[in-house]
Amino acid sequence: LIIALILAVVVIGGVKRISAIASMIVPFMVTVYLIAAVVIIVMNITAVPALIKTVVTAAFAKNAVFGGTIGVIIQGVKRGTFSSASGMGEASPTAAAAETSHPVKQGMANAAGVWLDTVIVCTASGLMILLTDCFNTAGGYVGSGSTELPALAAAGTNGVIFVQLACKTVMGKIAPTFIAIMLALFSFTCLISYYYEAETAAMYLFQGESKAKVRKVVTWIMRI
To answer: Measured between alpha carbons, how far is 16 from 10 in angstroms, rounded to an integer?
Structure first.
């Protein structure tokens, strides 16, 4: 209910309010999240060489070559699309609404956004998990970075909780709440972005001066 109310306040203000809120939230949440990742990396700096060796060795093993090929085709495309929707055409409405001196600048901004959320933020999450050994695998490996991991493995629980446990090794009890807030912020910016994309699509379906009243009704129905 709280998220719905905040979302209502934002989307009723139109694209200007949506862009203003996103401009405030996105730099803040990304900066804070990456700072947390850097702190964890620094706190576990002695484990970095071993981690690099493990990643490189595992990546070029026989099973990894075959699994990686299948992974790129299936999991890679699926998760890449889930992370940034790159290539899906979803960013076109928001990019088109931006005011820039040249369209190439906005194209570069969108490309940078894909790189930032898919490569930088996701890699930061992966490094936090790996360096603190707070993860389990489907193959049966149970990390030793947290006493909670065996129970999670037995229950088949995974996902963002690994990042929460990783941060907990440095931040303590506040870590799960911190990651929950970060996740809420990331999710909220997705919500307002998707709303605008949906509204733009609806406006396209009812374009033309003769359908101005219809557009207004449709817009309010979507907002509600």
So the answer is: 9
Query: What's the per-residue H, E or C state across 22-65?
Result: HHHHHHHHHHHHHHHHHHHHHHCHHHHHHHHHHHHHHHCCHHHH
Residue 83 predicted with pLDDT over 70: no
Give the CA radius of gyration of the chain: 21
Query: CB under 8 Å, gap of 24 or more: what pairs does 17-22 form?
Result: 18/192, 18/193, 18/195, 18/196, 19/97, 19/98, 21/192, 22/189, 22/192, 22/193
> In sequence order, what DSSP letters do the residues of 112-144 get, joined into one string?
HHHIIIIIIIHHHHHHHHHHTT--B-TTS-B-S
Alpha carbon 194 to its chain centroid, in Å, reads: 14
CB-CB contact of 11 with 142 (8 Å): no
Taking the complete model, does pTM exceed 0.90, yes or no?
no
Q: 122 with 83: CB under 8 angstroms?
A: yes
Q: Which of left, alpha, beta for 102 (phi over 0: left; psi -120 to 50: alpha)?
A: beta
Q: Is the pLDDT of residue 77 over 80?
A: no
Residue type, 101: S
How confident is the model over 183-221, as pLDDT tens digits?
A: 898 889 888 888 888 888 888 899 888 888 998 899 889
**184-216 as b/e, with b when 16 or more CB fall inside 10 Å?**
ebbebbeebbebbbebeebeeebeeeeeeeebe
